[in-house]
Write a structure and sequence with these properties.
Elements (H helix, E strand, L loop, with lengths): L34 H4 L14 E2 L24 E7 L6 H20 L3 E3 L2 E3 L1 E7 L4 H13 L5 E4 L3 H14 L2 E4 L17 E3 L4 H16 L4 E7 L2 H17 L4 E8 L7 H10 L3 E3 L6 H11 L6 E3 L5 H7 L1 H4 L3 E4 L11 H16 L16 H20 L4 H8 L3 E3 L5 E4 L6 E3 L1 E7 L21 E8 L24
Parallel strand pairs: 1-14, 2-5, 2-6, 6-7, 7-8, 9-10, 9-11, 11-12, 12-13
Antiparallel strand pairs: 3-4, 13-17, 14-15, 15-16, 17-18
Length: 494
């Protein structure tokens, strides 16, 4: 199944499947937080416990010369991270996105002088490993990264079937693998678990249960839902998670329809007619772009103005094509957003401004000069966050030895730059975290979320407004009790 990056879809590359980020206005603005925001708690959950480490923006390296199009990684005796992804083929932009975020983190760390490991200060080297989206090539390139390049970490990827290969190969050669993007729950089940692999993305069941919790326990308005997802394993898993969540958190809700469509569909009319006749009040979809954008556009063209609950329907180009009215009321589930307002910490604003200033002044090469890369947040926030976490673990382990890394990372709790806390469940190496659902509203109402000048994300489309935090204990990731390491443990892994 596809991965977390699939919410990105470039208007420049037809059928490129990739994730989007949360976008905002230009940085020609003062980095000033509202007084109200200074006293707001970023993470309302105390159950994740005290953090062992956190990203400290005061130590951020000088990012003023960072350009992802021209960056050159250090070589030699370095901490070597292989970004295993599609750098060629129809999904090549995925690799470009991954390269960007990992190089950003590496540049930051290297500007500080590196990390003390294995008895010396070492810089971070990022190496491209192109699997071309092909399983056979994936195995070959991963083995080459391990045996020839001597990498310490494998970072991926676009495709859960390919992440599975990465994890299997990492397990064979005892190398750390980090899954930053793929949602499939079965990657860490009893059949596929590897103690060298760490699942730092959210998962399909979490998404479904989380959205059901939002509608049943927080919003408490709409009761009639229609599921429309893509017809392959990911779409079906997304639907099953939502149905499970409705039974758990909203038993009085009614599922008035359920359909699955082929990928890259161009005509949604038959499904939309059924939705109109069903009496549905909300459409729930796991669609990624371009399907998510096409579904939204055609629904509005057919005057189906129902709210659409989603995780990928927030790509700014698609949203602007539909406009303010057509995007008003969308509900988007995020792994990076926190309780409103979003910019509560000076460090978060510093990171945001550093990224956005570079986009404005330095990133002149396509695709980095497009709006896709304009704003730090959303998936970029999550991906950089877990990569900083990885390097924090290595720094605290004082070693690139995978056994020492595992010892530190299991049960570790870390805080992102925006205050979001995450924890690594020891028994199956899945991430525990709060999630958040945002309702999209017109620009005049976005200040509740975007609390720094100009106080809105977009004027040309609705965007993040009221945001509800889904406590970690309500959206704990699925645990396979057949996995020996997890037998007899609760969902916290205790």
């Amino acid at each position: 199944m596809r991965c977390f990056l699939q919410r990105f879809s470039s208007v420049l590359l037809i059928f490129s499947v990739f994730f989007l980020v949360a976008y905002g206005p230009t940085t020609a603005m003062a980095a000033k937080v509202d007084k109200k925001a200074k006293t707001t708690k970023v993470d309302p959950s105390d159950k994740l416990g005290k953090v062992n480490a956190a990203y400290d923006a005061n130590k951020m390296g000088d990012m003023s010369d960072f350009d992802p199009a021209t960056v050159v990684s250090p070589t030699g005796d370095t901490i070597k991270i292989a970004v295993v992804a599609s750098f060629s083929g129809p999904a090549a932009l995925n690799g470009t996105l991954y390269w960007h975020v990992t190089q950003w983190v590496a540049h930051d760390i290297n500007k500080r002088g590196g990390i003390w490991v294995d008895g010396k200060k070492k810089l971070v080297e990022i190496i491209k490993a192109d699997h071309m989206g092909k399983p056979d090539q994936c195995k070959k390139v991963v083995e080459r990264m391990i045996l020839q390049e001597k990498v310490h970490v494998l970072w991926g990827t676009d495709g859960s079937h390919l992440m599975k290969i990465i994890n299997e190969t990492a397990n064979k050669y005892k190398v750390i693998a980090i899954n930053a993007t793929c949602l499939s729950d079965d990657l860490m089940d009893a059949s596929n678990f590897s103690r060298y692999a760490f699942h730092t993305a959210f998962s399909t069941e979490q998404v479904g249960r989380g959205m059901a919790y939002y509608y049943g326990q927080i919003r408490k308005k709409e009761k009639k839902f229609y599921i429309l997802c893509q017809d392959y394993s990911f779409g079906h898993q997304m639907a099953e998670g939502f149905k499970k969540g409705l039974k758990e958190y909203y038993p009085e809700a009614q599922l008035v329809g359920e359909d699955y469509h082929k990928l890259f569909l161009t005509d949604y009319a038959p499904y939309l007619e059924k939705i109109k006749a069903s009496g549905a009040e909300v459409i729930y979809t796991g669609d990624w772009l371009p399907d998510a954008g096409n579904l939204l556009k055609q629904a509005r063209q057919m005057n189906v103005m129902l709210p659409i609950a989603n995780i990928y329907m927030d790509e700014p180009n698609s949203l602007h094509e539909v406009g303010v009215e057509g995007t008003n009321g969308l509900t988007n589930l995020s792994t990076f957003n926190t309780a409103n307002p979003q910019f509560q910490l000076p460090g978060h604003i510093k990171m945001y401004k550093a990224w956005n200033d570079q986009w404005k002044n330095k990133w002149k090469t396509a695709p980095y000069n497009s709006r896709l890369f304009e704003i730090y947040g959303g998936n970029y926030g999550s991906w950089t966050g877990v990569t900083y976490w990885l390097l924090s673990v290595i720094e605290r382990a004082k070693s690139t030895d995978p056994e020492k890394i595992i010892a530190v990372w299991e049960n570790d709790t870390y805080q992102f730059v925006n205050g979001k806390k995450v924890k690594m469940r020891a028994c199956d190496h899945k991430i525990i975290q709060n999630l958040a659902v945002s309702e999209f509203v017109p620009w005049e109402q976005q200040k509740v979320s975007f609390n720094i000048p100009p106080y809105y994300w977009y004027q040309g489309s609705s965007s993040y407004g009221p945001t509800a935090v889904l406590p970690a204990e309500k959206v704990l990731p699925w645990m396979d009790q057949k996995l020996d390491r997890c037998k007899g443990k609760n969902d916290w892994g205790e």
